[in-house]
């Protein structure tokens, strides 16, 4: 786990309810206490970070301590802004009549699956760019596995898609230039090129193991193990190396009684399975605490086990 504190971007992912937010918050706290300037980013519309730190964070962000800053992004709000942005960009380059015709399609796109991910992805890139110099470490507390994977596969997919758009546009511009005899600096092409550069940059960061780390949080149970295994394969297949897994919610030795002993036996079996499957990628085991986790003191207890 120690090596993760030297990264620039750390993503916490995993199945719902396994402790992603808790681990991201504890990791960020510890890094900030190691004198790193940390930004913790959450895309959970339920405002879990605010609840954990017992303060209001929101989309404007808040300073939690000397070195620790946090921001909560609302996917729905971001999707709306994203679509507005596209409309604005278009209004500079195509006529109002076309805009009106496009309006319905754009609004439909806002409702379509994937637009929230696309919007959050844009926001992630924006945050990475704006925090590159301001922070030593940016920690992302992500949504459950499925969404995160879709999100991370976006730069590649969008890159391919944009490439084909660029080619089409280039051909159109060429024809236009031939017909009119004048060279023109095509604004649409410029927008597309900008997007392409942005996706390339994002992909370079996401796939760079030296500066970016992905950590899966799982509990010692059957389904989280399956989900983590699948997610890991997916990421590695798409060219993103996974830094490791954190096992959360391990019943501590001190817990007694027949029920606890039985549960521990079951957990131990899964913990052995986790070590067998993920080997040196098992970065930490975190005990189940005797209370739910919010506030600095409990986060420190978790951080000590990271
Ligand atoms: N080690 C632990 N000991 C005790 N309680 C824990 C531990 N880890 C997490 N919890 C509790 O479990 C609940 C879920 O944790 P958390 O919110 O971190 O999960 P999550 O993976 O972020 O969930 P979601 O998928 O909903 O975002 C919280 O109430 C948290 O306080
Ligand atoms: Mg969470």
From TrEMBL:
InterPro entries: ArsA/GET3_ATPase-like, ATPase_ArsA/GET3, P-loop_NTPase. Belongs to the arsA ATPase family. It comes from Acetomicrobium hydrogeniformans ATCC BAA-1850. GO terms for molecular function: ATP binding; ATP hydrolysis activity. It comes from the Bacteria. Residues 8-306 form the ArsA/GET3 Anion-transporting ATPase-like domain. This is Arsenite-activated ATPase.
């Amino acid at each position: 786990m120690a090596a993760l504190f030297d990264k620039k971007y750390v993503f916490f992912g995993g199945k719902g309810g396994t402790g992603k937010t808790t681990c991201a918050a504890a990791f960020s706290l510890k890094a900030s206490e190691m004198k790193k300037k940390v930004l913790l980013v959450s895309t959970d519309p339920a405002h879990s970070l605010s609840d954990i730190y017992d303060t209001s964070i929101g989309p404007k962000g808040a300073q939690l301590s000397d070195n620790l800053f946090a921001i909560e992004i609302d996917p729905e709000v971001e999707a709306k802004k994203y679509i507005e942005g596209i409309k604005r960009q278009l209004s500079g380059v195509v006529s109002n009549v076309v805009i009106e015709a496009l309006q319905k399609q754009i609004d439909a796109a806002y409702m379509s699956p994937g637009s929230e991910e696309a919007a959050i992805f844009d926001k992630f890139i924006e945050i990475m760019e704006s925090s590159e110099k301001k922070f030593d470490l940016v920690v992302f507390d992500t949504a459950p596995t499925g969404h995160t994977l879709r999100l991370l596969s976006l730069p590649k997919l969008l890159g391919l898609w944009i490439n084909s758009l660029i080619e089409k546009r280039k051909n159109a511009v060429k024809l236009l230039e031939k017909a009119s005899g004048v060279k023109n600096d095509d604004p649409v092409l410029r927008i597309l090129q900008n997007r392409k550069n942005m996706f390339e940059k994002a992909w370079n960061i996401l796939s760079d193991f030296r500066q970016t780390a992905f950590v899966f949080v799982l509990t010692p149970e059957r389904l989280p193990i399956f989900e983590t295994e699948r997610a890991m394969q997916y990421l590695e297949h798409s060219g993103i190396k996974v830094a490791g897994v954190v096992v959360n919610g391990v019943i501590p030795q001190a817990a007694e009684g027949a029920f606890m002993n039985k549960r521990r036996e079951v957990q131990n079996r899964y913990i052995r399975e986790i070590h067998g499957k993920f080997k040196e990628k098992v970065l930490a085991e975190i005990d189940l605490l005797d209370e739910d986790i919010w506030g600095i003191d409990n986060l420190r207890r978790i951080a000590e086990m990271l």
